[in-house]
Amino acid sequence: MATCDVCGNDYDLSFEVRTVGGSHTFDSLECAAQKLAPICDHCQCRILGHGLQSDGQFFCCAHCARESGKPKLADRV
Fold this sequence. Notes:
Layout: E1 2-3, E2 10-11, E3 15-19, E4 22-26, H1 29-36, E5 52-54, E6 57-59, H2 62-67
Antiparallel strand pairs: 1-2, 3-4, 5-6
């Protein structure tokens, strides 16, 4: 069994995710998202989809980008 990096649960069905910065062990996708998903710079939600990025800022949608002064960013349709 392995211990989740986020919640500390020692779980027999844990899994490992490798990233450029190393590897992480999780017991659920929720814990993986909490550790790895970027956060919208406007509304602070976790970005689980494609999101948008500009000048080092991350946004969950075009609305949040516009509200943060990035009017040229658009959602992919």
